[in-house]
Amino acid sequence: MAIGLFFNYGCKNICFILTFTIFILLLIIASPLTSSSTPDDGSQPTSWVHTIQMPNVTTDKEDKYLCIDYDFSIKSKHFLTGFEAKPDNPNVHHMLLFACSGKARSSKAFECLGGCFLERIYFAWGRNAPPTNLPKGVGFKLATDGIDFLRYQVHYKTIVNTSDQSSLKLTFTTDPQPYTAAVLLMLKNFLKIPAHTKLTIGNVSCRYNLQATMYPIAFRVHAHMLGRVISAYVKKSSGWKLIGKGNPQWPQAFWPTNDKELVIENGDFIAAKCVYNSEHYDVDVNIGSTHNDEMCNFYLMYYKNSSDSGEVNFCDKDEYTDISRDVPGFALEELPPNPDLEDVGEGHKHHHHHVQSNISTEAQLNISLKPASNWPMLTNGMELGEVTGLATDRFGFMYLFHRGSTKWMSNSFDENFIYTGRDQPPIEDNTILKVNISSGEVVKMFGKNIFYMPHGIFVDHEGAIWLTDVAMHNVFKFPTTLEDNPQASPSLILGEKFIPGLDNVHFCKPTDVVVAPTGEVYVSDGYCNSRVIAFDRFGNFLKVWRVGEDENTYYLPHSISMDTQTGTIFVASRSSHSLYIYSVAGDFKKKITSDDFIPELFSVAY
């Protein structure tokens, strides 16, 4: 009405614009954080969104946790059906949403290290981790077993000097959902992890005795510094099925389950296994609630038919030890390293206040390096993805092998090491850059529409380019004409495309390759097989040997190089942070370790 009066009584157009603008601003200022759509008939909305947001916070220390409580009303009619995390600061390490019992503390931000009374984790976000989405028709019923409020927690990895407004958008509805979501927490309450012990195992096992069928959605694992891998399985009449397997040093998020057909039914056994390594700790560590203790937690997010009564939320004993002993040996194997997730995950490693034992060393390094600015010189919109390999030729040029827009994520491979993106086209970017070492000038770019997950590169004495692709499980040899003829076909392909294996004609995520002047080819077959395999110049199998001392230990040979004068092979073991030296016949010569190799040794060049 006011807008009409100003306009009708002859005020100039500027009056109308100013009045309209002020009116809109007043509407915006009056609007709460909770937004909802109101039906035309004036009835209450059945679905709405509420955003919990950090109010321009800063932090004064590293590893700080801040929380905000949301005390909802009419909870018996509420279903939580969606989440959307919006981090506002690169120092945000992870976000959690707890369902809590009791009285909410504050709608303002407060420091909080733990969760809350009778907590259940409904949502977890970690950088570089996939988003958590509930299937259509699935929601958390907030009236379940005394849930009174929600707590939003943000972990800031480092000091935040600029104000942060990270938020979590929640979608609610009063419409009955056909399926109800819940979280099962499997945890170990008592376990002693002895010092200087390579392998300690914590087992949890229960039997599912409810009639309601459980449909797994996602899983989350949690341990502290000593945790290496946590996994859970269900034993059905047909045998064992993997529920989920995670590295507790990666971001604390819910990861989607791979087997979309998996169900857990009445009578099934559920078992979780936590694996620890305390080789370099001088004191024993126990399971406990503080950052100086360890933890063994596996969270399973699932849903069931809303008409089915009852739900299971906890399994905290090893009730069936014979079942735990029968869990597949795969549970003890660590997941292949993932640089993207490990770099992010560094922030949630809880630092035990123990003295770390000295590691015997044969190498003492004193290296001071400074990065060169604007190297390589990227012009005309050129961008580098994850650079996974470097090689030089005899003319002084360097070749960079990178992944373009592709990233290695936790779900890039299934439990059988098969690449999940094999139905997609290869990387469309030029994955190989030829660079003038002195000037940094990019001389040529090539290698588009060939590779899926680049890894290792080598240029031999004839100028041929050798490359490994961990997604395709292949080793390629391209002629020197590749850089001038992008359509050139490889002159030799080792391995079978997208098919992993352990025999003499297959690889499993081969990491690197080196070629002798006499033509012999040596491949570090690292992420699954922990070996070196050799071929002649035509690709015929010659020999194979396992890297490392222990047949039952996974050493991850991540890079390989060669002294052509003495016929010596150097292998960088990423997981054991050691350098192994062999003859070309595979005879072990020496092992070199150094504190400078810790935590991981990625590459070697001679």
TrEMBL record:
Coiled coil: none
Residue stretches making up the Copper type II ascorbate-dependent monooxygenase C-terminal domain: 180-315
Keywords: Copper, Disulfide bond, Glycoprotein, Lyase, Metal-binding, Monooxygenase, Multifunctional enzyme, Oxidoreductase, Repeat, Signal, Zinc
PROSITE patterns: CU2_MONOOXYGENASE_1, NHL
CDD domains attached to this UniProt entry: NHL_PAL_like
NHL repeat windows: 506-538
CC terms in the record's Gene Ontology section: extracellular region; membrane
Catalysis: reaction(s): a [peptide]-C-terminal (2S)-2-hydroxyglycine = a [peptide]-C-terminal amide + glyoxylate; a [peptide]-C-terminal glycine + 2 L-ascorbate + O2 = a [peptide]-C-terminal (2S)-2-hydroxyglycine + 2 monodehydro-L-ascorbate radical + H2O
GO MF terms held by the record: copper ion binding; peptidylamidoglycolate lyase activity; peptidylglycine monooxygenase activity
Cofactors that this protein relies on: Zn(2+); Cu(2+)
Cysteine disulfide links: 67-112, 206-315, 274-296
Cofactor binding, per record: Binds 2 Cu(2+) ions per subunit.
GO biological process, one term: peptide metabolic process
Residues annotated as transmembrane: none
Binding residues for Cu(2+): 93-94, 155, 222, 224, 295
Copper type II ascorbate-dependent monooxygenase N-terminal domain residues: 51-158
Record-stated family: In the N-terminal section; belongs to the copper type II ascorbate-dependent monooxygenase family. In the C-terminal section; belongs to the peptidyl-alpha-hydroxyglycine alpha-amidating lyase family.
Name the record gives this protein: Peptidylglycine monooxygenase
Originating organism: Helobdella robusta (Californian leech)
Classification of source organism: Eukaryota, Metazoa, Spiralia, Lophotrochozoa, Annelida
